[in-house]
Amino acid sequence: MEYFERPSGGEGAVLVHLSLRQHGQDEDLDEFQLLAKSADVSVLSVITGSRQRPDPKFYAGTGKVEEIAQAVKQLNAEVVLFNHALTPAQERNLERVLQCRVLDRTGLILDIFAQRARTHEGKLQVELAQLDHLSSRLVRGWTHLERQKGGIGLRGPGETQLETDRRLLRLRIKALKERLDKVRQTRAQGRAARQKAGVPTISLVGYTNAGKSTLFNRLSGADAYAADLLFATLDPTLRRIDLEGIGPVVLADTVGFVRHLPHQLVDAFRATLEETAQADLLLHIVDAASPDRQLHLDSVETVLAEVGATAPVLLVYNKLDALPDQAPRIDYDDDGRPHAVWLSARDGVGVDALLQAMQACVSSPWEQLVLAMTPHLGRLRARFYELGVVESELPNDCGGSRLSVRIQAPDLAQCLAREGLVRADVVLENDLS
């Protein structure tokens, strides 16, 4: 049963962008127009304005709504797109006045995802996100849903059509979550097998349209779809490559992030994003030529924190071809570790430097450490044994023990982060014996 309609491509749309002086949540108009382009929408007009705060009824003021209505009528627009998050009531009120469909920023992003999904898993994730978004908007424009079922044997008090649809919606959402849980389990088994075999995973993350897929193709020789569109990549792609001095590693291309990414998408794509959370190294691809570079960096870091990604991060400043005064290079931190790489994935300039930096980041030296295991750290102790890094254990009189381990720094950091600990909490000394 289909619960949502996916609008056909090429629709004529009026775009609405308002600057809110006291709101602090302004979106980027250029990015919004690129979102519309990515959704295969024909932009007929862009209406801008400014307000102190959103109007509770229409989000825009009544005068601005009249201006939008005139544009819709003159241009025969089929849909009005707002570069903001609208409440269900605001969408209903706007549709009633404008006499056409109204989509907010979240609805537009969901539609792009619906067009991009190719794999079975991707389609499940998109449908879950759409149904979650639709559940609070089910009454919009559907007055017949308020009627109760009629006919012989069905007259009188009973379930309205709207209540029936809401119940079916809840059942479908529950079924989708159960199927995605199985996907999560399958992915976890695959990750466990790779970890057991000692194959590191390197995930490419970054703002949408930063050039992740282009770089992924350059590194792996794959032919993943790459285009100058937002969310060109939706379904994750894994490729095995050989890294000199390290051996085989798994390279993962993931969905791009965007400012104020809808929570429905973060939740629905959690199974996919766990590939990022469990990676050994994150390549954070940044559009070096973008004027909003820092905003994009902050947005990606916010989403990474939401999914619990704790792996080391190597910044990759891409699109160096758009910055003629910049040469490819590696930036190092105070400890002499690679911190950032500047390159052009399109031209292949600086890719050798990236491979060198990746090798340095993945080939972490083994450390010999003595750890203080108190009784309440049983889960952490069990994890060290699972990894096979324990060399000896000496119990003490307090119910704990001194654990001698040989472990790589990223593995130690990941184990401690899961328990909310830092090195100083458990590391007694370097074991030099």
TrEMBL record:
The keyword Repressor does not apply. InterPro entries: G_HFLX_dom, GTP-bd, GTP-bd_M, GTPase_HflX, GTPase_HflX_N, GTPase_HflX_N_sf, P-loop_NTPase. PROSITE patterns: G_HFLX. One of its GO terms (cellular component) is cytoplasm. GTP binds at residues 206-213, 231-235, 253-256, 318-321, 344-346. Residues 200-366 form the Hflx-type G domain. It is found in: Cytoplasm. Keywords: Coiled coil, Cytoplasm, GTP-binding, Magnesium, Metal-binding, Nucleotide-binding. Residues 159-193 form a coiled coil. Its cofactor is Mg(2+). Mg(2+) binds at residues 213, 233. The keyword GTP-binding applies. It comes from the Bacteria. GO terms for molecular function: GTP binding; GTPase activity; metal ion binding; ribosome binding. Monomer. Associates with the 50S ribosomal subunit. Belongs to the TRAFAC class OBG-HflX-like GTPase superfamily. HflX GTPase family. GTPase that associates with the 50S ribosomal subunit and may have a role during protein synthesis or ribosome biogenesis. This is GTPase HflX. It comes from Paraperlucidibaca baekdonensis.
